[in-house]
Amino acid sequence: MTNQTQWSRTQKRKESLMRLLFTGSASLVSLVIFSLILFVGYQGVQTFRNIPAGEFFLSTDWTPSQNRFGALPFLCSTFLLTLLSVALAVPLALSGAVFLAKIAPRAVREMLRPAIDLFVGIPSVVYGLIGMTVLVPLLAKLFPGTVGYGILPAALILAVMILPTILSVSEDAIRSLPQRLEEASLALGATRWQTIRRVLIPAAAPGILTGIILGMGRAIGETMAVYMVIGNSPQMPKSLLDSTTVLTTAIVKDMPSTFYGTAWNNALYLMALVLLFISLLLILIIRMAAKRSELS
Amino acid sequence: MRMSRLTDRLATCFFWLAGCLIVLLLGWFLFKIMVEGLPQFSWHFLFGKPEEILAGGGVGPQLFNSFYILFLSLLFSLPIGVGAGIYLAVYAKTNRFTGLIRISVEALSSVPSIVFGLFGALLFVNWMHMKFSILGGSATLALLNLPVLVRVTELAMRAVPVSYWEASLALGSTRWQAIRRAMLPSALPGLITGVTLTAGRALGESAILIYTSGLSVSRHFPDFNPLAMGETLSVHLWYVQAAAVVPDARQIAQGSAALLVIVVLIFNLAIALPCRMLQKRLTGGK
Amino acid sequence: MFKGKQITTLLLAAAMSLGLLAGCGQSKDSGASAGAGGNTGADNGGAKQEQQLSGTVTASGSTALAPLVKQAAADFMDKNPKVTVNVTGGGSGTGLKNVADGTSDIGNSDVAAEGEFKDKGLVDHVVAIAPFAIITNNDVGIDNLSKQQAADIFTGKITNWKDIPGGKDMKITVVHRPASSGSRRLVQQIVLDGKEFTKEGIEQAESGAMKTAVASTSGAVGYVDIPFVDQTVKAVKFDGVAFSKETVRSGAYKLYGVEHMYTKGEPAGAVKAFLDFIMSKDFQERRVEELKFLPASLLSK
């Protein structure tokens, strides 16, 4: 009898210790997140000391050397680029995930999954270079009259970059569904496609959404590859193949060389803060849309 | 009945097409990188020192630094990220606060790496006086990878059927025992995905490391001093493309790209295979 | 693998090894950092005491200057096995910031420190001349641009190559560097007389990317440091003068900038020795030219 209680005492101690560790980790993560947001926010908000908010958000004139900081073109381009790249990547990634999880033979899956995971490790510089030396001239040839730089090549490259992330996480989500869901559906006489469409995908929705959000996050925050193919001229894009700038490239362009504390530097931090809010907004929208269409 | 058979067949075709398209797309990328990069491989390239003026520099020290920084950053981020993920999945009550944390974690994964780089430079290089060092670089990389790890872990834990958890508790286990014995083994594949995504990102990241671990390599070949500057392979790739004046800059960049792909592949296989075996052992085979 | 005891041991072991590593590094580094600013071994200064030089020198800043400083570091470390020279990039602005607040010993910069850095006590050392050229894509076919023509192209007044005598009917695509780049500021000063660049066109972050963009975009024109010029692009003459060491020396070729390395206050110890090494005749005449810069003394002769 005494042995048992001793054992359960040890277990209780372990339990408290692990609980402490886990809570500690979560607190540490929250600390990191909040300090980062504070850091970016504090620097960013300083911008409003010199520049009215109206000018920053609504003006299209970005000429820092003359103290004009209108960031509207960047905001629009960021939205456009993110939406386009997600729109390009998600259907393909989701189809690929379903393919690997349910349709492909085991051997194919064993080979393909590591190969796809490989792609997350390719540096963005490499994607950027391939974009700049292969995709851009190709687009220039296909659409004569343009130089091939713009939102289109950037979205295409980004879609390829985020495909593996969305695919991996979605596939995991689909594979981890209990067998009985699928079996029950098939037993009721549904075809495989009907099962996938009506049972499996909705059931795996939380995981799939997380994959999409993570991929979207990468798309919003990617700089180097986008920098090389988007053109970076600080004006509103007139078409998908017109040189423009997004928030991330605007930050990366000038952050290293602007001096700490100047209006220019603060404006860049403000852009980072805006980026954070944009992604928060997009995440909320996705989650709300999911909840609305959820089959309970 | 016919109709649904037809749509089923069409759907199967469609998915096979999608799969083939993905294979083609990624295969083309891989092909391009390898075809241009593999010819650069030589013993000297893989293990020799870099050059500034003459052609023929190697990337040995950078390769070592890539691994070293990867190892250190995983060391920092894995326990904390996985721990926080488990907390969110198991221990946390669903109130506003945890919802807020979840959303900020997701939003954080979209911050441009350069902001992390500057934050890390300020925090680690300046305030904590680590100067430009491998340690500073890995700490900042750990910051970058935390959001992905937390989210993927939480997801993996939540994907485990609730019945495992309930059964374990019903048998009188503590929560930690339930996690350790019942849930983690099943959640392992998802956790592995998190680790490979993180490692891939860590190996391929360059912007952050320019500000925190620098562009120099130590003069000794394996230098384990974490306070030395450590240029990694991907930073070197960027440097060679952007600012170096050696005549074979393009070739070095291509070789480095191919090398990185191989490194990531080896890493993923090295993680996936043992864990596959481990999972079989822990869950009685699936 | 996930037994509770083993996990705690693993975590503890990780924490301890981290501490060990940091400790190791710390003791090596605290010995070294004592040498960085006011070095004990080399206060006697001068080349005679080179064997006893020890310490760590950190230089950060301009990526255009980085190859030069890295080569100097490699050569210097060969001669002084006890010194470690660390070089990183980050841009001229970051370099100046780092040297002003003590994060690095030397700040590499393509532009002279101005504004708030004027009174931070930074001492300037001019280490090289960095000439640059206006480059075009190989299909443009123009040999020479006068200052006025170049200015009109870069400000956006001329948008088609046919408006330049000898040019084909091709749209001009201007390739820029970032607004805060030193090279861009130089071009603005020397070619545009301070006028604004056009907003049209493409921008690339670094010299390497600039060159690749000009080389692969038809009708493109840009500017890049001489070391990056090769057969994939065409370097045009400026006002009829082609680049060469002689034309820069004689003043005929006006497109060049000056590379600075700043220190906070007068340098001492290993830092001073490093800077002296860079300014030494041997390094200037051999390495600097190998790297396709020009010696700092070229213009003061």
Protein architecture, described:
- The complex is a heterotrimer of chains A (296), B (286) and C (301).
- Chain A is mainly alpha-helical.
- Chain A has 2 domains: 2-49; 53-295, MetI-like (MetI-like fold), CATH 1.10.3720.
- Helix content of chain A is 76%, strand content 1%.
- Chain A has helices spanning 2-45, 47-50, 53-58, 72-103, 106-118, 124-142, 151-175, 179-187, 192-203, 205-221, 224-230, 247-254, 263-292, and strands at residues 62-63, 68-69.
- The mean pLDDT of chain A is 84.
- Chain B has 286 residues and is mainly alpha-helical.
- Chain B has helices at 2-37, 43-47, 60-91, 96-108, 113-127, 134-159, 162-170, 175-204, 207-212, 233-242, 249-283.
- The longest helix of chain B has 36 residues, at 2-37.
- In chain B, helix 1 packs across helix 11 (249-283), helix 4 (96-108) crosses helix 6 (134-159) and helix 8 runs antiparallel to helix 11 (249-283).
- Chain C has 2 domains: 56-129 and 259-300, Periplasmic binding protein-like II (D-Maltodextrin-Binding Protein, domain 2); 130-250, Periplasmic binding protein-like II (D-Maltodextrin-Binding Protein, domain 2, 3-Layer(aba) Sandwich).
- Chain C has helices at 4-36, 66-79, 92-100, 147-155, 182-190, 207-216, 245-250, 269-279, 281-290, and strands at 55-61, 83-90, 106-109, 122-137, 144-145, 173-176, 202-203, 220-225, 233-235, 237-238, 256-264, 294-295.
- The longest helix of chain C has 33 residues, at 4-36.
- At the A-B interface, helix 1, helix 4, helix 5, helix 6 and helix 7 of A face helix 1, helix 3, helix 4, helix 5 and helix 6 of B.
Helix fraction of chain C by DSSP (H/I, runs of at least 4): 25-40%
Q: Give me the CATH superfamily of the largest domain in chain B.
A: MetI-like
Q: Per the principal axes of the C-alpha atoms, what is the gross shape of chain C? A: elongated
Distance between the termini of chain B: 34 Å
Structural class of chain C: alpha/beta
Q: What's the total helix number of chain C?
A: 9
And the CATH topology of the largest domain in chain B? MetI-like fold
Estimate nothing, just give the exact number of structural domains of chain C: 2
State the low-pLDDT regions of chain C, or none. Answer: 1-6, 12-50
Any idea of the CATH class of the largest domain in chain B? Mainly Alpha
Q: Overall 3D geometry of chain B?
A: globular
| Helicity of chain B, as a percent range | over 70%
Structural class of chain B: mainly alpha
